[in-house]
Amino acid sequence: MPETPRSADNPETVASSGRGPLTWVVAGLAVAVILVVGGVALLGGDDAEVPLADDTTTGSDTPGEDVEPTVTRLDLGQEGGRCMQPTPEALAEQPLALEATVVGVDDGLAVLEPVEFFAGRATDRVEVVAPNESQQALVGGVALEEGSRYLLAAVEGRVLGCGLSGPAEPELAEMYAEAFNR
User: Residue 19 and residue 33: Cα distance in Å, rounded?
Assistant: First the structure.
């Protein structure tokens, strides 16, 4: 059958694409949704979970105001039962690990100035609360002494003993270096 030219005078020969105005509206909405979702994906923040130290408080970042230092507050863990041999692998699994110097001890509270955070969110200051009313905070049987440097590992806001925390002596420092690839 030969094709007849299309003309407005001959409606029988006008071909229809089957796309009415509603089809174009739906297509436009689909494009708009794709653009919005793509924009949110590209401009949205990083939702990755960041490990935090327990009981961490932060100060105000408003310009012109005195900014309070950020603080990580820890309690000394009460060792229950027997300790396992401390290893770099066990240390590397801890959510908070740091090196810090004691800048003051008063009324069962040791205030430490961090030197380096190996794991967890860095803060300006670390406070360690003794488990009893004594005047000195103890870590693994060693008093936290003003001016001394310590390596501390903590979980759920409690400093771990059993050889994972203590004075920053070469053997413990070597274990921290191995655990955190330093």
Answer: 21
The neighbouring-strand residues paired with 127 are 73, 111
Q: For a pLDDT cut of 70, what percent of the chain falls above it?
A: 57
In order, the DSSP letters of the chain are -PPPPPBTTBGGG----S--HHHHHHHHHHHHHHHHHHHHHHHSPP-------TTEE-----TTSPPPPPEEEEEE----SPPPPP-HHHHHT-SEEEEEEEEEEETTEEEEEEEEEEES---SEEEEE-SSS-SS-EETTEE--TT-EEEEEEETTEE--TTSSEE--HHHHHHHHHHTT-
Residue 161 has what pLDDT? 86
Do the beta carbons of residue 73 and residue 52 sit within 8 Å? no
Residue of 99, 102, 101 lying closest to 117 (CA atoms): 99
Cα gap 110→100, rounded to integer Å = 11
In this predicted structure, what is the pLDDT of residue 120?
96
| Beta pairing partners, 39 | none
Tell me how far apart the alpha carbons of residues 157 and 74 are, in angstroms, rounded to a whole number.
5
Query: Which backbone phi and psi does 70 adopt, to 5 degrees?
Result: -80, 145
